[in-house]
Amino acid sequence: MTDETIDEIMGATYRALCKHGYASLRMQDIADESTKSKATLHYYYDSKHDLLCAFLEYLYDSFAERIAEPTGEDPVEELTALLDCLLTPRDENTHQQFQTAILEIKAQGPYDETFREKLTRFDRLMHDRIEGVLREGVESGHFAADVDPDGTAEFLVTILNGARSRYVAVEYPLDGTRTMLRRYVESSLLADGSGREVVAE
Question: What is the pTM of this model?
Answer without folding.
Answer: 0.86
